[in-house]
Specification:
With 438 residues, the protein is α/β, with parallel strands linked by helices. Helix content is 36%, strand content 23%. The chain contains 14 helices and 16 strands. The strands form 3 sheets. It has a 7-stranded mixed sheet, with helices on both faces. Strands 2-3-1-4-5-6 form a 6-stranded mixed sheet, sandwiched between helices. Strand 9 and strand 10 form a beta hairpin. It is globular. About 5% of the residues have low confidence. The protein binds guanosine-5'-diphosphate (2 copies). One guanosine-5'-diphosphate binds next to helix 7. The site of one guanosine-5'-diphosphate has 16 residues, from helix 7.
């Protein structure tokens, strides 16, 4: 899932009202990611069983007409760059304005579908007035009242119709079975340099194929007999055109690439260290059940003493806690140090994520660990864990069957997770633990 709808329009036409309506029951999943400015929103909507991202590109702008113009041009560029379809919103209550006109001029050049959406059509009289918007010359026009929801169903139908499931070409199917990596990180951490360094060494590219959106390209690599797919977000290959919003883009792209990947190679700049946004992406990757490898790039620039790498690693792990069992590699894309190691470790993490532990082995080891340290007694009832099984999910998940599942608290869960990690190969993958009544 990575189909994206962008809502554009001058201030006050009702963009946020529509945005909130589209999201309705669902919470904006990334609303707490720093770097997404307050007045820009990003969320996930469902319609007729199809899921898509919605971006409300419209920041509130104060100032003169020419500040408006600039802001609006920027919004349109965001939309053209990021979206699969653009909802261009105008306002029937105020009628056509010169800002609508200039926006329409920019949007008419778009190769992506533009749905002209006339909002605030609350009454039949308004519908008559609204016909003036036909003059903007867009083929698809919708009349809605975002506040009450009238007409939004038809708009959503039209959007949903454009979402096609990934085509099942032979190549796409073959790629689907390969490990998929996404290189993620803030602008200038060295993502493109790593990609180029990997590609430059050998004839490695087997084939390219579009991802679920036009924003991602899946490239099939065969590097020293190791096959994998790198998910390249549009931003890595052709640098973002709108520099002011680099950070905003990088967040959206990161999320798209994450959705399609098995393992995320999170890239940091060694000199800059880790920022709140990196931690957010890290947490999101873990929440989505993706494997993680941390690459500390530009290690060539760091003055190194005996314990520099070890100390750096210790510091990072503190920040990643509680999920600190992740591989951390110190690389230089520029000098090509440890870049193949990065791929090797990525493949290991992929294996760990696929890992199915034999049930007898799982029970032998974990029941012993439970024997050695029982869950604390709650309300006088001893808690007995009898049996453990790994669930058939893509992310390693374990069900512990016991008499009082609700009485087991987080610290004991952490203990079990640590024991699982000590005994089985789970480095780099989030682990899920459930307690169930037998
Ligand atoms: P944005 O700046 O484009 O995000 O616009 P908002 O969503 O903040 O809406 C601007 C104003 O228009 C608010 O006062 C809304 O309550 C109002 N509004 C939004 N949709 C409708 C509608 O369908 N009918 C009417 N009458 N007002 C609306
Ligand atoms: P991206 O925005 O994450 O794709 O970053 P780039 O690959 O464009 O790199 C940003 C800058 O960092 C460029 O000037 C690169 O030459 C530089 N750079 C990338 N990797 C390294 C590295 O390992 N060492 C040093 N010294 N510079 C690097």
């Amino acid at each position: 899932m990575s189909f994206t709808v962008a809502i554009v329009g001058r201030p006050n036409v009702g963009k946020s009202t529509l945005f909130n309506r589209l999201l309705e029951q669902r919470k904006a999943i990334v609303d707490d990611i720093s770097g997404v400015t307050r007045d820009r929103q990003y969320g996930v909507a469902d319609w007729n069983g199809k899921t898509f991202n919605v971006v409300d590109t419209g920041g509130f702008v104060q100032g003169s007409e020419d500040v408006f113009e600039r802001e609006i041009a920027k919004q349109v560029l965001v939309a053209l760059e990021e979206a699969n379809v653009i909802v261009f919103m105008v306002d029937a209550a105020t009628g056509l304005t010169s800002l609508d006109d200039s926006m329409a001029n920019l949007l008419r050049r778009s190769t992506k579908p533009v749905f002209l959406t006339v909002n605030k059509v609350d009454t039949n009289e308004r519908l008559l007035d609204a016909s003036e918007f036909y003059s903007l010359g867009f083929e698809q026009i919708f009349f809605i009242a975002a506040a009450s929801g009238s007409g939004t169903g038809e708009l959503l139908d039209a959007v949903a119709e454009l979402i096609i499931d990934d085509d099942a070409s032979a190549e796409a199917l073959e790629m689907a079975a390969l490990p998929k990596f996404a290189i993620i990180g803030q602008p200038n951490t060295g993502k493109s340099s790593l990609l180029n360094a990997l590609v430059g060494t050998e004839r490695t590219i087997v084939s390219d194929i579009a991802g679920t959106t036009r924003d991602t390209i899946h490239t099939h690599y065969n590097l020293f007999q190791k096959e994998f797919v790198l998910i390249d977000t549009a931003g890595i290959r052709r640098k973002a055109k709108v520099h002011e919003d680099l950070e905003f883009y990088s967040v959206i792209r990161a999320i798209k690439a994450l959705d399609e990947a098995d393992v995320c190679l999170l890239m940091l700049d060694a000199e800059k260290g880790i920022a709140a946004q990196d931690l957010n992406i890290f947490a999101l990757a873990a929440k989505k059940g993706k494997g993680v490898v941390v690459l500390v790039n530009k290690w060539d620039l760091v003055n190194k003493e005996t314990n520099t790498a070890r100390d750096y690693e210790t510091e990072l792990k503190k920040r990643f806690a509680p999920f600190s069992d992740v591989p951390i590699l110190f690389i230089s894309a520029k000098e090509k140090t440890r870049i193949f190691k990065a791929i090797e470790v990525g493949l290991e993490v992929y294996e760990h994520r696929q890992y199915k532990i034999p049930t007898s082995q799982l029970n032998d080891i974990m029941l012993k660990a439970i024997q050695a340290y029982h869950p604390p007694v709650v309300r006088g009832n001893p808690i007995k864990i009898k049996f453990i099984t790994q669930l058939p999910t893509p992310v390693p998940s374990f069900a512990f069957f016991c008499n009082f599942p609700d009485d087991i608290k987080q610290p004991y869960k952490n203990y079990l997770e640590n024991k699982l990690r000590e005994n089985f190969k789970l480095t780099g993958v989030p682990v899920r633990i459930f307690f169930r009544k037998k």
